[in-house]
Amino acid sequence: MCGIVGFVGRRNAAPVLLEGLRRLEYRGYDSAGLALLDGGAFTLVRRKGRVAALEDAARGKAGKVGIGHTRWATHGAPSERNAHPHIYGKFAVVHNGIIENYRALKKECEESGETFASDTDSEVIAHLLAKYDEGDFLDSVRHAVAGLRGSYALAILCEGRPDELIAARKGSPLIVGERDGEWYVASDIPALAGKGMKLCPLSDGEIAVLKRGGAAFFDIEGKRIEKEWAEYDTETSAPQLCGYPHFMRKEIDEIPASIAQTAAEFLKKPANQSLCEVLCHTEYVQIVACGTAYHSGLAAKCAIEALARIPAEACIASEYRYRDPVVSKSTLVVAVSQSGETADTLAAARLAKERGAYLIAVANVPHSSLTALADHVIPTAAGTEIGVAATKSYNAQLIALYLLALSLRAAKSGARDVSSSGLASQCERDGEDARLLETLRALPALCGEAIAASRKTKEWARRFCSAKSIYFIGRGCDHAAAVEGSLKLKEISYLPSEGYPAGELKHGTLALIGRDTPVVAVMTDRALAEKTMNSVHEAISRGADAYLVTSLSEYAERKEFAASILVPACERLFSPAVSVIPLQLLAYETALACGNDPDKPRNLAKSVTVE
Fold this sequence. Notes:
By secondary structure, the protein is of the alpha/beta class. The protein has 3 domains: 2-231, Glutamine Phosphoribosylpyrophosphate, subunit 1, domain 1, CATH 3.60.20; 247-451, Rossmann fold (3-Layer(aba) Sandwich); 457-593, Glucose-6-phosphate isomerase like protein, domain 1 (Rossmann fold), CATH 3.40.50. The chain contains 20 helices and 25 strands. Strands 3-2-4-1-10-9-11-15 form an 8-stranded antiparallel β-sheet, with helices on one face. Strands 5-6-7-8-12-13-14 form a 7-stranded antiparallel β-sheet. A 5-stranded parallel β-sheet has the order 17-16-18-19-20, sandwiched between helices. A hairpin with a 2-residue loop joins β2 and β3. The longest helix is centred in the last third of the chain and has 22 residues, at 431-452.
């Protein structure tokens, strides 16, 4: 998987494809390639590494139809031979997803004398296209994809058809675009930049035939279908660093604005009577997500249970559907995904809906598979996030989920309106609600103060570089911040790291603590502070240096800590949005101290569209 771009138009395709691939670089990848049709034969250019290397090789190549790809390895090592596009016979194909039955299909092809030029699962698609080729391009694609088990987003060229491109989708995102009579296909909206672009997302099982004369859409049986187009002015230029050394650092500074905008989007929505009814009758909340989004769910679980007094559970989406979850009509399922295309989260969300749950999507991308599936959408207005390690999108997810927790509280108190005016009316009746809402409105400013207070992380980073491993601990809501801080550190510094509930150290993990294993404690809940300190002392007594992120000034001066950062105090249930910021900056500074690129961590991709 990673990024797909295709083009059919009046211009040379190569510059268009390369620009689209550059816009998808933030997703993470290990190789890149493109195929062009100029007349009857393919021009194929592939390179291991960055799009810049591909650009040099593709300069001057002709062809007004083409496909391009940035690859994140799932089958076969990163290499030029495994890069997309793959060509066999008359067909060139780029593929996102995983073909689960590729071994059986490949064996059939090899037994009939065919040879393979790569180690990928994707190449078998080109062989199937050739197998079913009887002169009808669309029929070849229909029959080929019918034999695939797994997920795919495909863009395909056929020799002898220099003005035609076919795209197909099942379980992996693909969007068709049109502007000024030229046609595009891409795996993500940022690749389709420019004002006046019309977009049409493909649904599962659909095929698009793009020609210079127009576009046509078909189902897997070959029946023509009608699609709706939406005009969407995408960014006319790629996000810029604006003087920052890395996007991750810039995006941390954008956290206050992301939180403020997300809250404003939530609160300005008009009342939704059906949503109010659902919230009133909700008896159980399940939050399904992966990675960073799952950690936002851990924080939301604390807030929902405390504020609305409803049982809540944060579920790892990749495990959710394999455990036969209990879902009733009074279950509210909240699926959280930055991209809205996370494969495991989508699968969990589909299962929940099949079992009768009302589905709310929290996503940062408006036109996504998850938002299309959901009964209600809470958008996170974080803007484009280039850094692979999520920062501002995580904080935006938190504010969206906290506002949902307040809405559940209001609904359970009898409110029939959970819009901005409805929440305000509820707050007028309940002073505690008023305090909570004002605390949420103050979070952007508090996050700004936390950024300013986190300068010491550069000093911490120099010490952490030589650590054997690092442990992050916290209790209650602080545990949610601790596990996210640990994930950030391991993602971009490549240092082993784990996040634990503070009380769990003594149940096994303490065996790993020593002089070369720093411990970072997160402490914002005064009621739990001394309990956390017990775990800190256990680590110190085993030789570990202890570091502290806290909003409690009396603990920031404690001599047993090697160093501490004092962040502004806020409502304990919302504290992860503030206390996580020093941990994000610690990960960033440690990555730099280790000589790593924090924007493009090895082996990782921004949008994980495979299981």
